Amino acid sequence: MLMKQMTPRSxxxxxxxxxxxxxxxxxSDSGSERVKFATGPQGGSWYPLGGAIKNLIENNVEGxxxxxLPGAGIANVKAVESGQAQxxxxxxxxxxxxxxxxxxFTEKVTNVCNVATLYPQFFxxxxxxxxxxxxxxxxxxxxxAGQQKGNTGEAITDHMLQAYGLGFDDLSRxxxxxxxxxxxxxxxxxxxxxxxxxxxxxxxxxxxxxxxTIKLMPIPNEGLKRMQEFNPGYRRGIIPKGTYPKxxxxxxxxxxxxxxxxxxxxxxQFVYDMLDSIHSGLADLAAIxxxxxxxxxxxxxxxxxxxxxxxAARWYQEKGIS
Length: 322
What we know:
Number of strands: 10
Largest sheet: 10 strands, mixed
Shape: globular
CATH superfamily of the largest domain: Periplasmic binding protein-like II
Strand content: 15-25%
Helix content: 25-40%
CATH class of the largest domain: Alpha Beta
Distance between the termini: 28 Å
Number of domains: 2
Number of helices: 12
CATH topology of the largest domain: D-Maltodextrin-Binding Protein, domain 2
Radius of gyration: 21 Å
Order of helices and strands: HEHEHEHEEHEHEHEHEEHHHH
């Protein structure tokens, strides 16, 4: 069983355990256990990364089969909390919002535990030069191509706008769609600004830059400080010059972390084994997400304000990481 073991005292308890296995974990007739894994949208870095992690777990954790599902930062935390998924990729800022019951969460999440911090992500505000957007205050009246609701990038965009006394209603048009949809809108001139949260360089932004001249909008220090009032987990990040074509200067923005989360009720040894599989396969994962090249056991175990699962905590302790 993937849940923490309990001593059955009666037939109803046994029956309940069987029902949990079949409805939540999807135990198959062959005895293997199916785990639902919430990843990311197609076109983003999480979708292929989730496929690589699935392979590592299935190849190294005996009797486990992983079903990958599309998802997004906020939606994945909610899916793990509700039991619709048992494991997921998530963004540190969104998970901390959930732990504390801050918007967009309506109540505190209590069954979400951290396992490993994987790599940094960057909030990127991509504009067309002719739009004349120099900082977030210039976004009023502009047409935005944003990420779908339930995505961390959409929540960060909201916080950025609020930090400058704006809201989505102050924009001329807001389109919520996939990265591919947003790039198409920008290429056709039907949007003037595109926001997303992912690794750098982002494939979607490179695609756009191959067809249009782009500019990255900086988020000044005062804007970051105001955004940190909404979420203290926002950190200063820098998109180095040369990351994108014709980018001649470093661009200050917001940074946060991608991490691997699980339901807190998962059995300790199972989580321990998954973490061991991920750590042993970091080189494979770096081939999908280049930012993982700098990931170590120490950075994976960093405290990000989300409770560590006991199985993961034991793994770090055995590695000498407290």
